[in-house]
Amino acid sequence: MDQMIEITDADIDTLKWSASRLRPGTTLSREELLKLALMSSENRAAHALARNYPGGLAAFITAMNAKARALGMLSTRYVEPTGLSPQNESTAHDLALLVKAAYHYPLIRDFSTHPESEVDVGPRTLQFRNTDHLVFNRGWDILLQKTGYINEAGHCLVLQTKFEGRRVIVVLLDAWGKYSHFGDAQRIRTWLQAKGFDALHDPRPIVGEATAPVSAKPGFVRTALVDQSPANLGE
Fold first, then answer.
1. 10 vs 24: CA distance, rounded Å
2. Contacts of 24 (CB under 8 A, 6+ apart)
3. Other CB atoms within 10 A of residue 203 CB
């Protein structure tokens, strides 16, 4: 994690031309880049990490897709590491699988929920903040989170939170407004407070879907019928 990695022109986003304060020539440790990618959605940091993966960028993308398949994310396809390409595809169910798996990595939990961080970039010190406003809300116990946005995907949010002693995964995709996904998460929390966990159920089975026996093991629950086709992923 202490390996030093340089930001280069290759890390500049030429697809969406997203902004970044990490100028080419900036050198940071792998640990700092990972924190900025998870905490502040720093796309150049994410790209530099992928570019410095053993075997390079192509090997990293191959490894991403292999991991998705291993996790059972059968409707997921990655074409690059930042999430800025609309060709990246996934579903809410697959992203819930990803959150569940990522939770087992303490470093991802810590960095994704870190409120803010200062980074020395030569003569300057830059202040970075978490892109998830719920991290700063004392009413929430956020265990893991990630925000994302591109025009094709809308505003997206995945998180794992603790509520009344239980861990809950929330996946919100294609919110219209800049803060709508945070408001939607709060409405889900308020609904759970009013209804309790017993209210979580599928209102009716999807056509052609077999009825599964009741299991004592925790699993994923749909609270509404949704489009089952893959959706674009935000950053």
1. 9
2. 7, 8, 9, 11, 12
3. 8
SS3 232: strand
User: Which segments in the chain show pLDDT lower than 70?
Assistant: 201-235
**pLDDT value at residue 203:** 56
Radius of gyration of the chain (CA): 19
Name the H helices within 52-208. 56-70, 92-102, 106-112, 180-195
User: Which amino acid does the sequence have at 179?
Assistant: Y
In terms of Cβ atoms closer than 10 Å to its own Cβ (0-12, 13-18, 19+), residue 67 is middle
Domains parsed from the chain with CATH numbers: 22-199 (3.40.710.10)
Strands 142-150 and 154-163: antiparallel
